[in-house]
Amino acid sequence: MCFIDVKPIDLTLTISESIPSFPGSPKPQFISWSNLKEDGYNLELLFLSSHTGTHLDAPYHFVKNGLKINQIPLDRLIGKAILIKIKKTKNNAITKSDIILFERKNGKIPNKSSIFFFTGWQKNLQKKNYFTENPGLDISAAKYIASKKTNLV
């Protein structure tokens, strides 16, 4: 496995009232609370779902007693990662075989790694099917990655 030093990459989407939202999730709302003329400062309330924009699903999202987002140490979210480029189309999940093929070409993914998948799906961000037909992990890939005690996917 070859690691190279690169500048940090910001993967976040800008939060706005027009950002695409997961079906059924509320759109972000910006609510004026204070203004410069009357209060001496501007302040807005921001209302949004934890699934708004670029986000992290904490284990608690799927596991009854899993860690909540504020319990995950920041150092788990910053650092070097393995990038797996794999072209996928709608409803075409990433499989264990895809990951093993990557390892054959690039070396085994070490335990406790952070892994990023680049599928090209981001080009569909503004399309209606972005959230519903994305190429996620199938169960075989998820179990394989979990067996490596992966830090982050």
How would you characterize the largest beta sheet? 2 strands, antiparallel
Percent strand equals 5-15%
Number of domains: 2
Overall average residue pLDDT: 90
Form type? globular
- As a whole number of angstroms, the C-alpha radius of gyration is 19 Å
Please identify the structural class as seen in this structure: alpha+beta
Q: Roughly what percent helix?
A: 10-25%
What is the helix tally? 3
The arrangement of helices and strands along the chain is EHEEHEH
Could you characterize the architecture of this molecule?
The protein is an alpha+beta fold. The chain contains 3 helices and 4 strands. It has helices spanning 36-39, 96-106, 139-147, and strands spanning 29-34, 43-47, 82-85, 115-118. Helix 2 (96-106) crosses helix 3. The longest helix has 11 residues, at 96-106. It is globular and about 65 Å long.
